[in-house]
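Something for you to look into today, if you have time. Could you write out one complete protein record for me, on any chain you like? The space below this message is yours for that.
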Amino acid sequence: MEDMVSRIMLKPKSASPHCRHCSAELDLPFADLGETPIANDFIAAEDLHCIEPRYPLRAFVCRNCRLVQLEDFVRADSVFRADYAYQSSMSSSWLAHAQHYVEDMIEALKLGSHSRVIEIASNDGYLLQYFKVAGIPVTGIEPAASVAKIAREQRGIPTIETFFGENEALNLRETIGPADLIAANNVLAHVPDINDFVAGFRILLKPNGIATFEFPHLLNLMKLGQFDTIYHEHFSYLSLTALERIFRKAGLRVFDAKELPTHGGSLRLFVCPSEAALAETDALKGIRGKEKKASLDTDAPYLAFAEKPRSTKTALLALLGSLKAKGKTIAAYGAPAKGNTLLNYCGIGTDIIDFTVDRAPSKQGRFLPGSHIPIYGPEAIAARKPDFVLILPWNLVSEITNDLAFIRTWGGRFILPMPSPHLLEEAFYAN
């Protein structure tokens, strides 16, 4: 545990934090979730009685560029360490999403053996494996050694262990050449220096190359109260309104956009060098219009969001408390970062949740940070037969309820925490 403390370094708190994009003073609050541990710092049994570091989890809105962001307390290299536990390939629905993306990009861009595809934050090779099978040269960029090793050894994906930015882009352009396509899925929120990160794409793209960025859409987070997606690994919370300004500064522009159902509602932005001859689509203009209608360029919707975490906490504790009062047993499914934000903000521990399960072997046998709920393999659900299962990765509800449909044999039911805590109706369950 002492090593953990030494790795995670606090930056001095300033009286007035400043925007990571435009440097304007941050004085408009968005969410205050108290002090929590790092969401993916799972605890070994021998460390359960050690002091566990906690850090403020507060988000602000820049009044100038409208980037929603955390106070800068935690270094990126303390979060994405060699033992980073998250593996993208643990979700079958996410793998299907990745495969569909690859098929679309190969057809749209006419990619082949002459092309070069690079993924930033390539994790365990979950996406690049499909380009590789199609005979397209690929390179993964992944700072976490644990998952980079899986990509190389299990999937044969050339993977470079580094954080991406301008300097890394210059090196890559010299060593492997520019890219026809750069994919960046669910990474843009994870970078503390967003200007340096985005500038690297301009350097690494061919003149007519494109980059795609997927990320949970801030508009959905706000509308559906998805405050649990706020955690220390996510430095920023992203809208088209803020990102178009960020890309423009880097010599890039958005020319197309697509709304996706993943992660509770995401955007995929298609980005090219500013001078590329690619016309803006109606789909992009439509999303601009949605954000304008929601007044994301004003203070009001951000100020209104502050009540949503409190109301969800009250409702979830009331629901779980009523079930426990009736002598019911409650387990959880999953050990996602969002789940740890939810449990820690609501003060839920082993007095309410007996255990959770997760498909990732790297998490099994450990304990959730803060709540200290034990993590077992998925087989524990069938062995222990809980009355209720709280689905922490609620974005995968269809996949999980299908996999665990057998809990109906003993009358088991599912609980969803978002958009408001509720029991799933029987009609929702897989047949």
